[in-house]
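ARCHIVE CARD
SHELF: 3
SLOT: left
DATA:
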Amino acid sequence: MSETSKEHKAEAPKKLRFGIFICSTSRYQMSQQGGKPEDVSGDLTESMLKKAGHTLVFRRIIPDEKVLIEKSVRQALKSDLDVVVFCGGTGIAPSDITIETVSPFLEKVLPGFGEIFRSLSFDQIGSAAILSRAIAGVAKGKVFFCIPGSPNAVKLCFEKLILPEAAHIVKHARE
């Protein structure tokens, strides 16, 4: 790591406020019918954030619906969150619209996030990594991540990219 990066990270906030949106129509429908949907990726995210000393302000399950994803982004932009994660709905099926819905709200996109995620994924799963879509960007001083919903992808994103760099990104987004 460069000396400049070390300095910037030292100046970055130590404890971040996260909001997590799990984008899953099936889990959303189950929760609306009074059931408790299994959410392995959400549980993993929550555990990793707490272990890293960050605050999970909320974790919500929302459906893969453009209007509700847009509403969620707008709420996040008005909140006191530092980091917003949309988990799921990033595949290539017609119903996977998370990235297309969140992207227009981003003031700056961080293409390296998706590039590095796919490179790391390739090391784990091989050529199927070309199907993986992930983006990161900033808007109104907040960092947004759209990541795949599989537990392995969540673990990889948080361990290798989000937790090591989120505070650094927040620092620069608020300069």
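SLOT: right
DATA:
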Amino acid sequence: MAARVLASTDGVRFVMAGSGDMMDKMVRLAAKKGIADKFHFTGFLKGRNVYEMLAESDVYMMPSVSEPFGISPLEAMQCGTPSIISKQSGCAEILDHAIKTDYWDIDAMADYIHAIVKYPAMYKSLRENGLAEIDKIRWEYAGQKVRAIYDKVLGR
């Protein structure tokens, strides 16, 4: 997917954060494809470093095969960073202003990255609408919804 973005979009760099069991494979894959100079592998980030990286990014992507909830796209949107997430992630159910694609559709992911980077109006719209959406999400509201479901089931 990154190679496809780089083939059509100038000035793009990728950051891969984390230290999972696939990291070494990803480093080798970037080298094999001849794009390692366009990647920065940070390893595990925490605290302030996470928010600094998100705030400096033009696009955040979470192409997870399975992510029961996935809070990192919310953190990215909170920093004003447009997000691309897999339709299969749990947060896809609650986010209206994140771009959603199938985890296996690398063509769509590449096209969306290109569009966000190339078209300022798209970037601005996703940024502003994402910030407004995140402002309205509260754990308290989620808890109230769960409570209402329990009350309904129990006939209260």
